[in-house]
């Protein structure tokens, strides 16, 4: 993995760049659709290519448990197994393991946990996670880390930083994955001094990219923005910076303004499967009776295949009839919308018009939208 900055906005951390990998280039800023089990729900690899996805995300924890490493090894990696030829970032599954609560125990060596599938006991060590990455042929490998929920004390966050640092060193020394393919994960809760300490420790390892973990764990948007604003001056200028678990349009643009280059989230796909769509004016929910006879596309300003061929009324009819097709079409549209928005942000950075784009989008976009507010109040349908 080699990262080259192509353009910057003077006096800021905002940048557009290109990441070079063996499986192709990734132009940043970039949004990564989430394919936890080797599949972005309801979509094929061909769908992902047609909507413009450059890179997707999968999860080492889930793939380790099912289908297991033996089968994936036969295919010589997850790319061949799922027929996706472009880069894949593989999360370690640390977040999933930590969320098991009573089903796991953390020690200096790693995490002992019980499978959420069959209750079998396993131990994730930094070395094992990197071996999993090797079998999966991860283009971007995330080492095992300790992710805490919002509200963790300073002492808990400091302990998490120390363990994450120790595991990062072990991950590198394991030799399973080239250093250039590993991204160092910064933890520290919502304590700026711990975030700075964690970043300094990650930089000592020479990672080619930096990931910010421990966000989107229950905090308010204002709390997230406050820490990112304070922390941005410490972010590297010559490495891609990845913010885990962020996928709403306004939050992505705000994060780009604070020096973030890479994003992932299940939000676009989850909203689609629940009948909601992003539009240039804000989110809409097709459950609302407002769309019963609406002959407009989901977003009149969108040029995706869904908006060019189907109306809100038709998609609403399918959704309320429990058909499977609208889940796929809404998922496709939502991912196209986010991928296209991030691509527009990249071009705006290059043309030095990012703030114009951000202001225009922010003035027109309502995160919840009048239609959804009305639905919440009236409990329509």
Keywords for this entry:
alpha/beta; three-stranded antiparallel β-sheet; 43% helix; disordered C terminus
Plain-language structure description:
There is one protein chain. This protein has helices at residues 45-51, 60-65, 69-74, 78-82, 94-98, 126-136, 154-174, 192-204, 221-231, 249-257, 267-273, 305-309, 312-320, 325-350, 354-364, 369-378, and strands at residues 2-8, 15-21, 24-28, 30-33, 56-59, 88-91, 104-107, 110-114, 121-124, 140-141, 183-186, 209-212, 241-243, 262-265, 276-277, 284-285. The N and C termini lie far apart (50 Å). α10 runs parallel beside α14 and α11 (267-273) runs antiparallel to α14 (325-350). It has 381 residues and is of the alpha/beta class. It has 2 domains: 2-265, TIM Barrel (Alpha-Beta Barrel); 276-378, no CATH class. It is built from 16 helices and 16 strands.
The total number of structural domains is 2
What percentage of residues falls in helices of 4 or more residues? 40-55%
The count of strands amounts to 16
Question: Helix count?
Answer: 16
What structural category characterises the helix and strand content?
A: alpha/beta
Please tell me what the overall shape is.
Answer: globular
CATH-assigned fold name of the largest domain: TIM Barrel
Largest sheet: 5 strands, parallel
